[in-house]
Amino acid sequence: xxxxxxxxxxxxxxxxxxxxxxxxxxxxxxxxxxxxxxxxxxxxxxxxxxxxxxxxxxxxxxxxxxxxxxxxxxxxxxxxxxxxxxxxxxxxxxxxxxxxxxxxxxxxxxxxxxxxxxxxxxxxxxxxxxxxxxxxxxxxxxxxxxxxxxxxxxxxxxxxxxxxxxxxxxxxxxxxxxxxxxxxxxxxxxxxxxxxxxxxxxxxxxxxxxxxxxxxxxxxxxxxxxxxxxxxxxxxxxxxxxxxxxxxxxxxxxxxxxxxxxxxxxxxxxxxxxxxxxxxxxxxxxxxxxxxxxxxxxxxxxxxxxxxxxxxxxxxxxxxxxxxxxxxxxxxxxxxxxxxxxxxxxxxxxxxxxxxxxxxxxxxxxxxxxxxxxxxxxxxxxxxxxxxxxxxxxxxxxxxxxxxxxxxxxxxxxxxxxxxxxxxxxxxxxxxxxxxxxxxxxxxxxxxxxxxxxxxxxxxxxxxxxxxxxxxxxxxxxxxxxxxxxxxxxxxxxxxxxxxxxxxxxxxxxxxxxxxxxxxxxxxxxxxxxxxxxxxxxxxxxxxxxxxxxxxxxxxxxxxxxxxxxxxxxxxxxxxxxxxxxxxxxxxxxxxxxxxxxxxxxxxxxxxxxxxxxxxxxxxxxxxxxxxxxxxxxxxxxxxxxxxxxxxxxxxxxxxxxxxxxx
Length: 663
Known about the structure:
- By secondary structure, the chain is of the alpha+beta class.
- The chain has 26 helices and 21 strands.
């Protein structure tokens, strides 16, 4: 019997209309855990490096994390994986809500879509009943509207629906997949779904899921709930609201946006507005949010109420998700009322809330600079907010200049030319990043920005504080109950970190310390993404309830896989390295791992080189960021090493003794 997981994937050949339920190998779960881990293995095995995002050979995988559907609090993430049309590398985006548990209760761990449908369809899963249904009547409909229409059509009000809007149908490179309370947004995953001719994936399940050691598992779950209550009653002092508590409460519960609005860049990620957050602005934004926010909501089996339903006068109600609350407002130099209104339309269209506002602001900068002309914007409104609505429509419908802008700032600048590339200044690996630019180089963030492959810095940062505390007594108080550290040495790293002087940035934490800290934070995110755990209760906040010490117990008691901290760390390193190898096979090299030139005002080229050199070595990669043959064999990835040698990615080396089982 399989525990925590179902042991079955649903394989859909859209070209032939074939549907097959396939049993999976439990050994893959032991080696790659599930979720993102086993997604990476599927993509490595079945998607050749010659295939691009819109190739029939590309897969689009909806995966429930290993512990989704169990009583583990907050464990509800769907991991959607494919090739990104923006980067031509692996895209993996997480959705909260109820979709992943519903998939488990339908008896499935993953839905794997391949090929392309000749007509627009939606996939309907109701336990063992699976069918591809005509979706021609849904063409052009919004993502949320589509979900409601499908539920009515099927008479299944509790069905979970992941759908694309018009942006996905028209293959906008940063189209999202919307799913009620969450979305898979980064990397253009919705464009791949649209290219495959799939409007929605609909799931309804009522089956049971088995736990290996129920009593032990429930005891662990109760411990987590008690800790959540403790943390909710005792926010961490001296840090911004987003870091003081758990989950993502800063957007929906907390109205103080001083840090975000004054430190993040506005417009095309270029203008910092110090002193913006006045008492008057705070009052206006509070009133706007209180009037718009009709209800705080949670994802499946979670007490955190991070999300909210937003009802703007004259517009349908929609679910607001995290930082999208601010991205349109800040992109347009507008107010919160505008941001909440345009976000409703953008959600129906199905576009990524990080990329879309930057692309629109980028276009207007090009117009102001004369690189684009008024002729490129026929009928452009005169008012600022109207320009953004206009551009959103043009992009989503791929009309006129919108057809070029639909490919993101990096690719659009290449096509436009005439100096436009200088304005596409916030890209890493060809995708728009968070609009955050600071003064002094932060060595931790330098490594995270350069080497991260999740396409968003917030999906790497986490359990180590973002900045030093000003006084030693405050640092000493912080480390007293810091049980989440994988090793006591991390406490000392933080105790010795000072705002100024010898032990301050950019030369402290030291290069070696930075490697260890970044590896720890990244490891926790990758574990979350295999188990299906929300980062807001694990890898992202300070002092979370889930950490490296209790996760092995959850896996052992839930999935029945013998696990300890070393085995868990090794598994995470295995599939993280496999993702690195997958992108390496597609051409990614060190030259691609550079943050924007203006990311920090004060740069240190020699230190930056040393950071990257040392981190590559720490991870088992060579000087070009390619996993070495020795490191691959140690992780049981000898099959990767063999292909790298065949393709000339690695040069022939002495035989290396294999020290881990291969699959």
